[in-house]
């Protein structure tokens, strides 16, 4: 690990970023060049003390997940991400798994959507990053590991994962996720991660039955109904932005202005991820 070069790299990248780049107000009294350390630490999901020690050349060797979080928080390009890993004494992630790295342009768009439910997912339904309101609406989806990172895997192995949709909508959602997995399998072939997911699910009778239908229709509905335990059912428009380089999708959920759904979404923005209880 080259602590001096790592510290210098982190500092220069932090100073190159502006508050507007990540959806933060500049403020009239800001004197810092670029972002503050505490702002970058928040973007990376780590403590200010931990990030500060790295930038001062006296921190511990960061793990690969921590480096991935830093790359995402600093909006690094793929070459910059690889350089970060190498400075920290790790091998750069294989470019074959580039769909794990969110492009800076996508992150800049997401940063401007902090008051909107939005998230970035891979073609396997793995959630890479969410806005706070997306977490409040859909639950935290970035902490899963292994096959459970994929929505379709959780759908057929964990019944509680379906609670986000009304019961009457669930059969169609299951067919949609399966069709999307089939499309990913067709693109990647037998040795792909999609193929590994299919193999992992092959012993689940419900999945096997849906998979056997060989449905390839694009069922990705623009309007979705979300069941939330505190505010009830919300009917939301779901717009999708596809990054053709990585295959990642940016999902943005909005409600018709002035509608009851917009009111519910506004209430959700207030209560966040907390669950209300009665005495």
TrEMBL record:
Highest taxon of source: Bacteria
GO molecular function: DNA binding
UniProt cross-references to PANTHER family, sorted A to Z: BLL4672 PROTEIN, BLL4672 PROTEIN-RELATED
InterPro entries xref list: Cro/C1-type_HTH (IPR001387), Lambda_DNA-bd_dom_sf (IPR010982), MLTR_LBD (IPR041413)
Name of this protein: XRE family transcriptional regulator
The species this protein was found in: Cellulomonas rhizosphaerae
Pfam family, one: MLTR_LBD
Residue ranges annotated for the HTH cro/C1-type domain, each copy included: 28-81
């Amino acid at each position: 690990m080259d602590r001096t070069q790592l510290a210098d790299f982190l500092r220069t990248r932090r100073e190159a970023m502006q508050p507007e780049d990540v959806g933060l107000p500049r403020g009239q009294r800001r004197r810092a060049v670029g972002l503050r350390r505490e702002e970058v630490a928040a973007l990376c999901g780590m403590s200010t003390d931990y990030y500060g020690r790295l930038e001062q050349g006296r921190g511990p060797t960061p793990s690969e997940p921590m480096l991935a979080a830093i790359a995402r928080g600093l909006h690094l390009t793929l070459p910059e991400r690889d350089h970060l890993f190498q400075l920290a004494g790790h091998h750069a992630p294989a470019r074959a798994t580039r769909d794990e790295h969110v492009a800076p342009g996508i992150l800049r768009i997401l940063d401007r959507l902090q008051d909107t439910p939005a998230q970035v997912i891979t073609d396997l339904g793995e959630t890479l990053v969410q806005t706070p309101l997306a977490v409040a609406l859909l639950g935290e989806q970035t902490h899963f590991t292994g096959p459970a990172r994929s929505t379709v895997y959780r759908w057929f192995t964990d019944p509680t994962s379906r609670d986000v949709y009304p019961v009457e909508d669930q059969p169609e959602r299951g067919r949609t996720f399966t069709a999307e997995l089939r499309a990913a399998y067709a693109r990647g072939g037998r040795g792909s991660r999609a193929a590994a997911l299919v193999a992992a699910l092959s012993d689940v009778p419900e999945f096997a039955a849906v998979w056997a239908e060989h449905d390839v229709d694009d069922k990705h509905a623009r309007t979705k109904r979300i069941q939330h335990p505190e505010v009830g059912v919300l009917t939301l428009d779901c717009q999708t932005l596809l990054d053709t380089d990585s295959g990642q999708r940016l999902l943005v959920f909005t409600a018709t202005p002035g509608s009851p759904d917009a009111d519910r979404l506004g209430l959700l923005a207030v209560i966040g991820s907390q669950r209300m209880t009665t005495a």
